[in-house]
Amino acid sequence: MNETLKTINNRVSLRWYEKKKISTEHMDKIIESAIGAPTAGNMVMYSIIHIQNKKTMKKLAISCDSQPFIGTASDILIFVADFNKWNSYYKNEGVYCDKGRRPGNAEMLLAFEDTMIASENAVIAGESLGIGSCYIGDILENYEYHKELLDLPDYTIPLGMLTFGYYPKDYKRVKRERFNREFIVFDEKYKKLDKAELKTMFELKEKEFSTKDSNEGKSFAGEFYKRKTNSDFMENFERSVDQWFKNWK
After folding, report:
1. Is 37 domain-assigned?
2. pLDDT in tens, 16-28
3. Chain segment 136-147, per-residue pLDDT in tens
4. Domain shared by 89 and 44, yes or no
């Protein structure tokens, strides 16, 4: 296995960081790698907000589902899907007319793609430098608070936040199992899994769940649904996401 594949396959989400500031040289390389990612039509439909202020980090640690480790990161990059700059440019150049089309869902989805591709480039660049990271999807929560904190205008959505820090010395990486490839990769067209195949797909997760004494008599599906999909947290998450979508128009 070559070094690139080793870097990708050894990556884990890192939530404990060495108490050392990431060097300017390393942070520049991470950001430059993000900007060099593939982008639809070379439009670069995203912005990156670099957070170094510890007070801001602590605020984000609270607003992003109360995760204290966020405040211990060396640096944070927030990847924002962004058509505000293009929209403003169009307006400034006078290209809009009464019947002219305005940015819509198509631009939004393309911007989503641009943004997440760039963020993963940043992750891999960091890994190659001994710098770990953790994706924080909770930046999409608390719409009103994050919009004000980050001064986000219309046609912007903070799709993802990444915490960065050097790996602690002798840190033991634990890789979490994914679903088997047969349930993820399909040939030529989508395959709808039947009941038996779905049961096999979730077999490992159900087995791990059942080995914990606290889960005796409970089902993995029921508890996961209650904790994630049907939770108060997800209701607030969905409310905020709806607001971000409205912010795009």
Report:
1. yes
2. 999 999 999 999 9
3. 999 999 999 999
4. yes
